[in-house]
Amino acid sequence: MIGWNIHDTTRLWLEGWVASQQGWRIDVLAHSLSQFRPELFDGKTLLVWCGENQTLAQQQQLLAWRAQGRDIHPLGV
Question: Which stretches make up the Transcriptional regulator MlrA-like C-terminal domain (predicted)?
Answer without folding.
Answer: 1-72
